[in-house]
Amino acid sequence: MQVSVASSPALPTSPARRLRPEALGYKGVVAASLIIGAWASLLVFLLVFYRPDWQTPWPYLLVLAQTHLYTGLFITAHDAMHGVVSPHRRLNDALGLLTAGLFAFNWFPRMLPKHHAHHRHVATPDDPDYHDARHPGFVPWFIRFAWNYVTVWQVLLMAATYNVLKLFFPAEQVIAFWMIPAVLATLQLFYFGTYLPHRGEHAPDNPHKSRSQLRQHVWAFVSCYFFGYHYEHHDQPFLPWWRLWQAKR
């Protein structure tokens, strides 16, 4: 059952530009390595060397930068679910396992079948990412989404890791630069990758029950690594995140 947003007209979605699958080579591995390296390097800097002055805008901007890199971790794990990080299955899945784990201890093998169920049953009761048809608002939908994915083990591991990290680093910096960016990135991914694309603002004959952001590549990258080009992703899930912009008309 699909619920439309009554106050918003159905938005036409231009057909995606069809692209041919390309040999991945090591492009996906390089992209994943850059994201992992940037995330880890910035986190080490923020916890070990940086002394934030909370009266200036810089620590808040650094929180946003780390949030963006957290989002990149998840986007890499998502690409691994579609086998487009590496053509070598073991390496692809290992990078998916690593990036999912670095993002708040998500468990890649548990996420994988749920994500493919989302693609097979998008915006239906069998879609694990969809709302319950009675509460399509952002907050109740997000709560249901989080309930489907967050586990007790994740919460326990986050709590244990926090208590270990604060033995070595200032607690406020662990919260500001390790915990808060993970929460913000989760909200960012849900908003741009689930709520906006699938809340019903698309034509009834839309084959993927998805809408897309307007064609603005800089904003599409900054907001969610082109994940807002969501119709294009559902239309051609073999495209890694760094090729999605090419499919946008």
From TrEMBL:
The chain crosses the membrane at residues 29-50, 57-75, 95-112, 141-162, 174-193. Keywords: Membrane, Transmembrane, Transmembrane helix. Residues 57-150 form the Fatty acid desaturase domain. The keyword Lipid metabolism does not apply. InterPro entries: FA_desaturase_dom, MFS_trans_sf. One of its GO terms (biological process) is lipid metabolic process. Coiled coil: none annotated. It comes from the Bacteria. This is Fatty acid desaturase. It comes from Hymenobacter lutimineralis.
